[in-house]
Amino acid sequence: MQDFVQLWVYLSATPLFGLSATLATYTLAQMVYQRLEQPPWANPVLWTVLALAALLLATDTPYPTYFSGAQFIHFLLGPAVVALAWPLWQRRADLRRRAGALLAAALAGGAAAGASAWAIGWALGLPAEVLASLAPKSTTAPVAMGIAAQIGGIPALAAVAAVLTGLVGAVSGKYLFDALRVSAPDVRGFALGTAAHGIGAARALQVHPEAGAYAALALGLQAVLAALLMPLVFKLF
Q1: For residue 79, which of 2, 71, 73, 105 sits 20 to 30 Å off, Cα-Cα?
Q2: What span, in angstroms and rounded, lies between the C-alpha atoms of 215 and 122?
Q3: What is the DSSP letter of 37?
């Protein structure tokens, strides 16, 4: 017990704490996820977030202390996103053939995601800066933060909304698609990437390679389209 306490004191005072806690928690969550045959509600990202949040609260560990180690994993998000281009390159002929339809679907999906978030918040009487923070919720968190800063929102709140949107989409997507009788992997993947960005794309990649490729495409399209068009729309209206 004394050795464990000494190890905890050492880890909590160094960047190794955030790195070790994240890797250990996600590995355990992934093992449980695989053992349960990958049900959506057991999404390892969701349970890793909840477990780490509980750990930080229970140990009274400041978030900057945790992130000083977790930033090494955060850095890998860039190469991971770039790697998503490979399955798209493998399907480049099909993507060129369907380019118009995919672009129209991305525009419609992004508009529905942003407008619905804004409309629901407006109906609930939320302040304007909160509405502007919710509108880019279906883009990946860094992009959502940048858009929120341009349209008068709160970047930190936009990041929280984006993460929650991704988690909800990854957990509920399968049940919604089944209820709507949508079975085509490319359609399911594109819809999931459009609504739930990176977390949804990660879920799609675990389920089917075709779904993962189209989810990655949708993720990229939403980031580009929202970054270009959403500030213009808010400026006009």
Answers
A1: 105
A2: 29
A3: T
User: Closest Cα to residue 195, out of 175, 231, 171, 166?
Assistant: 166
Co-location of 162 and 195 in the same domain: yes
Give yes or no: residues 70 and 117 share one domain: no
Mean pLDDT, the chain, integer: 86
Q: How many domains does the chain have?
A: 2
The residue segments making up the domain with residue 36 are 2-75
Give the tens place of pLDDT for each residue, 64-85.
878 877 777 777 777 777 777 8
Alpha-helical regions (H) of the chain: 2-12, 16-35, 44-59, 63-75, 77-83, 85-90, 92-97, 99-123, 128-134, 141-150, 155-180, 185-207, 209-236
Look at the block and give the residue holding tokens 């495409």: 217
Cβ partners under 8 Å of residue 206, min gap 6: 38, 212
